[in-house]
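Raw record, unedited: TetR/AcrR family transcriptional regulator
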Amino acid sequence: MGSGYHSPRRAVAAAATRAAILTNARALFLEHGYAAVTVGDIAKAARVAVPTVYASAGGKSGILSALLQPAVEDSSVGETLAAVAAADDPRRVVDLAAEGTRRDHERHWETLYGLLRHAPGEAAAREVIDAGIGSYLDALAAVADRLAALGGLAPGIDRAEALDLLWFHLGQPAWFTLVGDRGWTFDRAQSWLAAAARRALLTDPDGVRTRP
């Protein structure tokens, strides 16, 4: 057989091995915390050798990245940004951002809150988390840009401050605090965070001013 031959059966087995590693690692991380789990623990739970964990999933940081990837790449992000780009009312832009960030967190809540509420301190894990936060901030920056383009930002608030305020009101810590730590429902959190963000960001947060 030539070097270009790929066995479908081998590919299926490799995918099954990777899935077992990720599933068992996720369960261990959620139960014991990321820092307390070793690659050996994951290998034992998945019934594979330690080198197989590294070859299949890249070690703990690679596993963490794979577990967070569905949230980072969730379709709600692109759908929300498309709706934001089409919206012509700043209040609607903020409401769409609140709805979109809520949807992403709600879909992946157990993984996001379970793995990230106590952020791992290991350097490799921090790089993974920082990359995810960077993607989150990029999405919020598009929201800030749309608000600026519509002339909806309150006097004295520039794009940079708008991004800071969006992160404060709609970033991961806001959802973790209200829903995870304080037990709010997602409906209640979305409603409150959207209203608070509108008041903090917009020149006309309640839509009471008439347009010329």
